[in-house]
Amino acid sequence: MERITILVADDHTIVRQGLRALLAAESELEVIGEVGDGRVAVEAVKELHPEVVIMDIALPGLNGIDAARQIASLSDPPRVIMLSMYTDLEHVVHSLRAGASGYVRKEDADVELVAAVRTGRPESPFLSPSFDRRLIEEHLRKAEARVGQREEYEPLTPREREVLQLVAEGRPNKQIAAMLEIAVRTVEAHRASIMRKLNLTSQAGLVRYAVRKGIVPPDE
Amino acid sequence: MPSAAAVHGPSAIADVARAFHELVQKASLIRELESSSRRLAALSARVTQAQEEDRARIARELHDGLGQALTAVKMDLSAAGRQLGPEATATRRRVVDARKLIDESLEELRRLVFDLRPPALDTLGLAAALEAYGREWQERTGVTVTVEAERFEPRLPFEVETALYRICQEALANAAKHAQASRATIRVAREEDRVGVVVEDDGVGFDVAASTESENGPVGVGLLSMERRAADLGGVFHIESAPGRGTTVRVSVPLHREGQ
Ligand SMILES: Nc1ncnc2c1ncn2[C@@H]1O[C@H](COP(=O)(O)OP(=O)(O)OP(=O)(O)O)[C@@H](O)[C@H]1O
Ligand SMILES: [Mg+2]
After folding, report:
1. What distance in Å separates the CA atoms of residue B116 and residue B54, rounded to the nearest whole number?
2. Percentage of chain A with pLDDT > 90?
3. Most CB atoms within 10 A, among A113, A151, B36, B211?
4. Is residue A32 part of a domain?
């Protein structure tokens, strides 16, 4: 079986211990890092390039959902599986909109987490069976509709529109940074801010938005 | 030119002096009243704030302490369960029971945390927290509630989000307790440099003047606390209702406060 590298982001030692034991039982899963802070998690992803991040929501520094959103805006991002005590619809829906590949209730980690790590994808996220999938999908659609309304006025700054165009043209961050004579980190920050403001979760969504607004021509 | 004393006599001077003295006393009484009511308002604001901080702290301790410990115990229990041989049926059953008990405790803990301070209010903001509360309220009361809450970018300040959440919570609590409504609505929207909140129900309504200005003081603390919370933010609170006409609570608070 193929090896899957994992970064664990949870601020509770006892939970991390439990997770380590749980994941150690699966030979192809390898924990390559543990962090206890959302902002540090984003940095660790850039450094360690894990394939999967197991992400708590109540984290110091930056909450897990905002961290997931920032991670999703990196180039070639890892899959993020949310693992939280929170079970309400709002947290699940916001996580999925932030680009998460799955959402597992913390107390169900023992039976569901491994499956979520193996099978969760942004386009078909793993959800605990205890969640009402139909209700979640309905809320995702409503949230999409809200974004549609909000686009009537321009939410982006001129600089962000500039970055959006270059991103939608498929240019890597490094090239954009060179073209605008700014740091790569600044490009990443603009990208994250654009995704957040437009409530987008993926590169594809970003391109669709840019096309719809006539910022870039449709690609056939 | 004749003096006032010459015209009205000494007793008149005494009257004027007395009246003047009384006036001065009244003025200083009014000043004292004003200053003590200001002190009271400040005290009440501080008490409210302290209460919110306590609620947030207890919710966090429940979530971070008990909650995380319970989930960790459950993981351990599962790991132990997996090591049991096939003959240990009785032990395995006890493990299953223990895990179920943990799930129930966590459900309970979640309810407690939600009542104290919903996590969504911190992680996701006012709109999501109100949506979560509306759903919970609807399930509990059987009354349909619609939540139309604008998302603010950047988020509203902590005290504003908290106060507006509590106001909506109290307004819906009243609707559940008194209104016999079939529908309720929460709306939160930006109005230039203010945030407007409207909570409406189509229930039995009530005579506002009679229940807010009764001789024995206010009936409950609900309306009063909504008004106070709005005032603490430099905002205003209105309630419109009449028997048979439903009830509408309106609050408007400034987005930015001078001198802060
Ligand atoms: N939505 C409503 N529909 C009908 N009557 C209402 C509504 N809201 C308030 N009232 C009336 O106004 C009174 C005062 O409300 P208030 O919230 O101050 O007190 P309470 O709900 O009775 O008690 P408390 O809030 O302290 O638990 C209520 O007793 C009720 O008669
Ligand atoms: Mg009340």
Report:
1. 9
2. 59
3. A113
4. yes
Instruction: Determine the distance in angstroms separating the CA of B65 from the nearest CA of chain A, rounded to an integer.
Output: 9
Number of domains in chain A: 2
Q: What distance in Å separates the CA atoms of residue B188 and residue B197, rounded to the nearest whole number?
A: 5
The DSSP result for A99-150, as a single string, is: T-SEEEEGGGHHHHHHHHHHH--SSS-EE-TTS-HHHHHHHHHHHHHHHHHH
Q: Which residue has the tokens 């004003």?
A: B34
Q: B72 CB near a chain A CB, below 8 Å?
A: yes
What amino acid occupies position B256? H
pLDDT band at B14 (very low <50, low <70, confident <90, very high): confident
Going by C-alpha positions, the residue among B108, B111, B109, B121 that lies closest to residue B168 is B121
Asked if residue A218 is part of any domain, the answer here is: no
In a domain, A179, yes or no: yes
Q: How far apart are the first and last CA of chain A?
A: 39
Distance B167 CA to ligand 2 centre (A): 10
Nearest ligand for residue B205 CA: 1
**Which tokens in the block code for residue A213?**
């607004």
Q: Are A36 and A60 in contact (CB under 8 A)?
A: yes
Query: Considering only CA atoms, which residue is closest to atom 1 of ligand 1?
Result: B175
Domain count for chain B = 2
ipTM, 2 dp: 0.79
Shortest CA gap A28–chain B (Å): 18
